[in-house]
């Protein structure tokens, strides 16, 4: 019996050739691997954001010039928020944050891994590949979850006794009634403009530092995993993540301030000044300057971003190991 006849009878009997079975197993393993990466990414983001939630709220209050705290410094704002609203007010909107951050972080890490595996044939330079993959990952995450970020920002901007929104559902309906669908996307232009270089630089810096540490000083920064591949020690992951986050945040912070001001524009008496990216950037520059405007809150952002990115990368890489995913330089 010839091979074609064998194939015919195999198909007729509902059986699968060994090559087809192997192909299906490989396909299933690929989907399982990406599912694990999405899960690890989502958990990593939630752990990081919960840890820095109080600092995140202080940053929003300072960036958006809440009238109760706009003339105060970081520590003074922290003290006044606790005195005026209570300690747990520092975690205001954190539930909304978790609803946003799990899919956001999952999409970001998952997209980066996907691009890193599928772009090498189109982008030859390894450094440019990391930068591009990180930028695409950031853009995908922001685009998919931006409405949730707007809702979280509106809730965090409120102060006790002056609530405009009673909760997540009320915020959604209020925005929809007053501004329609476009109300969920104010400031998305500066968000995308800021996220592309921020995410690109974050992933690029972390991957580059990881590669440098494991190739130049493997005994200091790394140890062999179960397969014998060198992987970063936990403290080294934390260090590389913190440095990567600090570098990326410094470069893109003015766009983050612009985005926040646009997001809460409808809640401010002078909201008409913050309708477009160019108008908002110019208003902040003219009225508040560089230090007190475009870079206002940067100090607390350093305190916030270093542990955020450190924890995020550390938890992600650790979970990948626990889920039997490769975390070596060549992964």
Automatic annotation (TrEMBL):
Cellular localization per UniProt: Mitochondrion inner membrane
Membrane protein topology class: Multi-pass membrane protein
Repeat in keyword set: yes
A GO term from the CC aspect: mitochondrial inner membrane
UniProt key word Membrane: yes
GO biological process, one term: transmembrane transport
Main location: mitochondrion
Keywords: Membrane, Mitochondrion, Mitochondrion inner membrane, Repeat, Transmembrane, Transport
Spans of repeat Solcar: 32-118, 125-212, 232-322
InterPro entries: GDC-like, MCP, MCP_dom_sf, MCP_transmembrane
Pfam families the record matches: Mito_carr
Recorded family membership: Belongs to the mitochondrial carrier (TC 2.A.29) family.
Protein's name according to its UniProt entry: Graves disease carrier protein homolog isoform X1
Species of origin: Lingula anatina
């Amino acid at each position: 019996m010839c091979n074609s006849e064998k194939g015919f009878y195999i198909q007729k009997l509902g059986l699968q050739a060994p090559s087809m079975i192997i192909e299906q197993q490989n396909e299933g393993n690929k989907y399982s691997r990406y599912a694990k990466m999405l899960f690890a990414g989502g958990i990593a983001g939630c752990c990081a954001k919960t840890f820095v939630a109080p600092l995140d709220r202080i940053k929003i209050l300072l960036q958006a010039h809440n009238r109760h705290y706009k003339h105060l410094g970081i520590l003074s704002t922290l003290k006044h928020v606790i005195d005026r609203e209570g300690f747990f007010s520092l975690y205001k909107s954190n539930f909304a944050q978790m609803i946003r951050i799990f899919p956001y972080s999952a999409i970001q890490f998952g997209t980066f891994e996907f691009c890193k595996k599928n772009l090498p044939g189109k982008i030859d330079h390894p450094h440019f590949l990391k930068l591009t993959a990180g930028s695409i990952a950031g853009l995908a995450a922001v685009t998919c979850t931006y409405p949730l970020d707007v809702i979280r920002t509106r809730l965090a901007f409120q102060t006790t006794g002056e609530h405009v929104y009673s909760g997540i559902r009320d915020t959604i309906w209020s925005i929809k009634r007053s501004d329609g669908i476009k109300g969920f996307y104010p400031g998305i232009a500066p968000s995308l403009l800021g996220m592309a270089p921020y995410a690109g630089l974050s992933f690029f810096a972390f991957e580059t530092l990881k590669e440098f540490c494991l190739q130049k000083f493997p005994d200091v920064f790394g140890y062999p995993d179960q397969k014998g591949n060198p992987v970063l020690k936990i403290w080294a992951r934390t260090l590389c993540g913190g440095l990567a986050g600090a570098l990326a945040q410094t470069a893109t912070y003015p766009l983050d301030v612009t985005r926040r001001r646009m997001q809460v524009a409808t809640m401010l008496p002078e909201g008409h000044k913050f309708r477009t990216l160019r108008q908002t950037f110019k208003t902040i520059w003219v009225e508040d300057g560089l230090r007190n405007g475009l870079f206002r809150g940067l100090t607390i952002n350093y305190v916030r971003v270093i542990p955020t990115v450190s924890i995020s990368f550390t938890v992600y890489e650790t979970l990948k190991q626990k889920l039997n995913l490769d975390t070596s330089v060549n992964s």
